[in-house]
Write a structure and sequence with these properties.
The complex is a heterotrimer of chains A (about 150), B (about 325) and C (about 280). Chain B is of the alpha+beta class and about 325 residues long. Chain B is built from eleven helices and twelve strands. Chain C has two domains: about 1-130, no CATH class; about 145-280, no CATH class. Classes of the chains: A alpha/beta (about 150), B alpha+beta (about 325), C alpha/beta (about 280).
Amino acid sequence: MEAINGEGGFEPRIVGFLCNWCSYAGADLAGTSRIEYPPNLRAIRVMCSSRVNPVFVLKAFQDGADGVFIGGCHPQDCHYMDGNYYARRRFMLLGRLIEYMGINPERLRVEWVSASEGDRFARIVREFTSDLKMLGPLDLKKRVCDGI
Amino acid sequence: MKKIRRDDVVKLINELRKNYEVIAPVKLDGVVYFKSIGEGDVITLDYVNSAVSPKEFFLPQRERILEFTESGEKVTVREDLKSKKRVFFGIRPCDVNALLVLDSVAREEFEDPYYLDRRDNTLLISLECIEPGDDCFCTVFNTGPSLDEGADLVLTDLGDSYLVNSLTDEGRMLVSESELLKDASKTDEQKADKKIAECADSMEKLDLGNFSVDEESIKERANRCLYCYSCTFICPTCYCFDVVDRMDHYSGRGDRMRFWDSCMNPSFTEMAGNFNPRDGKAGRFMNRIKHKLEYMPSRHKVYGCVGCGRCISNCPAGISILDIIRCGVSK
Amino acid sequence: MGSDIEDALRGEAEKLLSKGDVDLVLGYCMEGDRVVPCFISSAGEVKRLVWNNRCKNNLAVYLRDLKVRVAVVAKGCDSRAILELLKAKQLERDDLVILGVSCKGMVDREGVEYRSCGICLHRNPVIYDVLLGELVKEKEVRDVDELESLSLGKRLEFWSKQFNKCIGCLACRNACPMCFCEECVLEKKDPEWITRAGDVSDIFLLHAIKATHMAGRCIECGECERACPVDIPLMHLYSRVCRDVEELFGVESGMDQKDKPPLAVFDLERDAMWEENEKNKKR
């Protein structure tokens, strides 16, 4: 992943898995409403948050992501009825696992963003970016390979 | 012959480190590994053998054998072959013989330049064994406990000192300047011979004259085998590898990687079209045993097993190649 | 007494084989000074079967591929593995005769107790057709995991050091009775999640992915740790996942065949509450 060079200082790289029906639409609304938010999130559209396999999250961290965001529909509003319920369970577990292995679980963020919540999406990305700036780069590959 | 005080061995290694990379044994959480010694590494002389065999220093688990860059029509390939001379300290006679087995494979019709580059640039200081490990059986294949050829220097434990014997000119020159080496006496040499003989006498010997793999002994073990890659990866003579070209289309850069493969993996013999002539478990197990004990001797005139015992110590299903060998002898 | 159980085992095996109730008895026998799994197919061979404090192997790992009726010796952990395999519809209950036996912990060839036995809370078999010997008292309190007290940075350092030892032999996967996928995600080529041509970060992913796959299925038999040739303390990782599944989803693997796989179901109220807990914990 190529780094974005900010005004100096670390710019976190966030990979965002956004579900097609809710959060991707919400992100799109943020764009069409011309709401400004940091460009650190790279969006990947998936049909449902439950499409996201924990492997994707781990791979993103391995390939250089400092944070991973998963956006789904609000509980009870999933386009496929119950996809987000499975995702919720899955990523609570993954958060604990990565914490046990030494990755700060705050780097994995799961939020339910509806298609109408453009400003909320922007706010979430703004917050996540600034949280990650405080946490610093993950550099997972380097840290694991060097044994530190 | 020369000798060196036990306490001076680490000093000798530090002397060598001034001019060479030195690989020596260290203990981590009670497990012994060979490691390229750096600042802060504590060398151990108290070990039977390493968990993983020394082959990883000659045939690494993953190795970049070339890099290429593509820009437009032009492709540049870069191969890095000149390793620097280095010293491998503490390799056991069985593992030295294992390198000789790997040599016979690497120097066939097509030579393996990557392996040979490392091999030819490594000086071996072997440590003979005066006590066998629980699973050792080098005497079955005459690969130990003493070493007469294959290494540059051979050390034998006399208790408070080590006898030092140079088998090659390079070995002799490596330590000729060191003040840590003194002359050994005839008594020292005799003591060393006695210790080695005692060690060898306590170990099993088999007459491999009429040896052939006993297929009955394979069957039940093939059922127990879990088909993991443990034995093949820790074995000092297993050399099978896979090669893959990786390309990053955005940057136009790529490389060719070589890495260990295992015949225990069902996809070892898988071919395009999903055809697999050896996908049955028993077939893979039989192949591994026969490769070590029949195909290697017939093709390379040397047994593929050196009796290091690592596979026996580590097999989670409790399979011992020595049991299989014994069955093949008693005919 | 160990030898009473051994006699009972041999008696039972002989009975089952001579009556033709089973085609195979899967138990333990001696090979040299090692205790190894063995497959007995005739009543005349039952004297080979042993029972002692070195019978560590989880025999459930062999059951899937034996397409015959099998009587299997099952300790607490083995029986939980069998139960999980039944849940996953990998075994036919009618093809199994489970010879349950309580275990007081197993030791290695040096007489040292395996770590998984030291922390075990299920020494009694949870499912069996015949019980050999008697049930034993279970340990009541879980041991504390010493890694919990390490900081995030120290944990990453610990696991990175361990994974630098890993040779990717996948013995942990092959020894695990719950790893039965015909095509394993760890070796998939298209897409290739983990490559052997990579670096230690691929090894990190290997173990993290395997751990997520064990969620709700690992029964903490410790075979993974025993199989590892470079002594990586894998039980820490899988035990952690087991504890998380128990706490977050309220289900313990390998105990009740009627339990549903925790990641294939949901409980709206419970999950919402835990989601809130997890978020608040972090902030």
